[in-house]
């Protein structure tokens, strides 16, 4: 691995993450929810992960804002890896449940479960 790539890996702490959440937000062509709703959810997710020390100097959860996750209904949509668990209706209140139950405790939030990899 080249020096610049290793520096990026080290700076981001990529080897320390246990989960990665992707959130459909800031869509080019909003279909699953109004663009503003997606952006509000994204800002909430960023803030809460930081407040709970799940992101930052000793990260546990990596987050990515996705332009579109191709489930264009009942959004914002989120997917958590490595669990392969998909959630619908991810407004801030739902994201709080996902953070508290799934990202912290590893428990699926069945009420908002959209799909799950059966091998997980």
Write the layout of secondary structure elements.
Layout: H1 3-12, E1 19-24, H2 35-51, E2 61-66, E3 78-81, E4 85-87, H3 92-103, E5 113-116
Parallel strand pairs: 1-2
Antiparallel strand pairs: 1-3, 3-4, 4-5
Helix pairs in contact: 2-3
In words, what does this structure look like?
This protein is of the alpha+beta class and 120 residues long. The protein has a single domain (20-116), classed as Glutaredoxin (3-Layer(aba) Sandwich). 32% of the residues lie in helices and 19% in strands. Strands 2-1-3-4-5 form a 5-stranded mixed beta sheet, with helices on one face. Strand 1 (19-24), helix 2 (35-51) and strand 2 (61-66) form a beta-alpha-beta unit. The longest helix is centred in the middle third of the chain and has 17 residues, at 35-51. The model has no long low-confidence stretch (mean pLDDT 91).
Which keywords apply here?
3 helices; globular; 5-stranded mixed β-sheet; 32% helix; Glutaredoxin; 19% strand; 120 residues; alpha+beta
* Fourth-tier CATH superfamily name: Glutaredoxin
The structural class is alpha+beta
Q: So how many helices?
A: 3
User: Strand tally, please?
Assistant: 5
What overall geometry do the principal axes of the alpha carbons give? globular
Largest sheet: 5 strands, mixed
Order of helices and strands: HEHEEEHE
Proportion of residues in helical segments: 25-40%
CATH class: Alpha Beta
Count of structural domains: 1
Mean pLDDT comes to 91
């Amino acid at each position: 691995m080249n020096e610049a790539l290793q520096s990026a890996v080290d700076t981001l702490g990529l080897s320390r993450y246990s989960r990665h959440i992707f959130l459909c937000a800031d869509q080019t062509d909003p279909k699953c929810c109004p663009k503003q709703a997606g952006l509000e959810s994204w800002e909430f997710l960023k803030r809460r992960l930081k407040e709970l020390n799940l992101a930052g100097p000793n990260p546990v959860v990596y987050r990515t804002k996705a332009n579109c996750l191709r489930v264009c209904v009942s959004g914002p949509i989120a997917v958590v890896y490595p669990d392969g668990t998909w959630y619908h209706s991810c407004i801030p209140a739902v994201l709080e449940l996902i953070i508290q139950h799934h990202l912290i405790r590893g428990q699926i939030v069945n009420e908002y479960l959209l799909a799950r990899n059966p091998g997980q």
